[in-house]
Amino acid sequence: MASNKTVVLITGANSGIGYETVLALSEASAEFHIFLGSRSIEKGQKALENLQLAHGGSLKGSISVLQIDVTNQDSIQAAKEQINTQFEKLDVLINNAGVIVYQQVDKLTALRQAFETNVFGQMIVTETLEPLLKKAIKPYIIYVSSEQGSITKRLDPNFEHRAIRGESYRMSKAALNMLVACHRYNYAEWGCRVLAFNPAWCVTNLTGEQGREMRLKGGARNPREPAAALVDIVLGRRDGDIEMNGMVDVDGGVLPW
Ligand SMILES: NC(=O)c1ccc[n+]([C@@H]2O[C@H](COP(=O)([O-])OP(=O)(O)OC[C@H]3O[C@@H](n4cnc5c(N)ncnc54)[C@H](OP(=O)(O)O)[C@@H]3O)[C@@H](O)[C@H]2O)c1
To answer: Per the confidence metrics, is the pTM higher than 0.90?
Structure first.
């Protein structure tokens, strides 16, 4: 069924920045239908229940849970079919799912797992959904990247996170940035706005429970900040930044690749 709604899919939205972005978009406008992407349908349903319990009164845009594991092609294809059946188009894709792989596994496994989710998954999800994005009037593809993937910042002696090693994560986000550049070039002819987004250091589940505590103590941001910036992007308020050559930053402007 064709729809006048602005249809948004956020992957990895049962937690952290994705979850807060579902909330912020729904609070922003009744025009949105937001697919809360989750690799676990149970976690997705729980997240939606939490949203409705804690914020039911302020939710305007409609929300539904969509099972999508970005490393599983069958799951991605099924997600595409569900969006197509319900809306026949996708206006905004927020590729947010991501992992930091701990060094409890050997280095090669860590590298492979980081790339599998943070790079290969993003590419396959986007290219599978491309036909639905082409049907949108003003399509956006947003990749949640990281300043940790900036090659320029890696070599900047003043970068606050320079002491963190994290090669598998940094390399995967740098590769993701190249994917963004390729998709920006490839998709320009049909008017798609493609960008990498830096949410900055936030209190989320990305590094587990201990990491969450460390983030809280270390003054990491509330994930509502990047969620608000993502709403601005989706509403077209950051189109000038998207035209620039760099990662669109949560605080405005762009960061170097
Ligand atoms: N937090 C930060 O400081 C920070 C800084 C820069 C960039 N980022 C980026 O922000 C994005 C969101 O992370 P977050 O900080 O909000 O962490 P988070 O709370 O751990 O959220 C990550 C989400 O990704 C999901 N996910 C992982 N692998 C997946 C897969 N194969 N398929 C589908 N979903 C998958 C997780 O699902 P499960 O719950 O099932 O694991 C979870 O919902 C990531 O791309 C991350 O790299 C975060």
So the answer is: yes
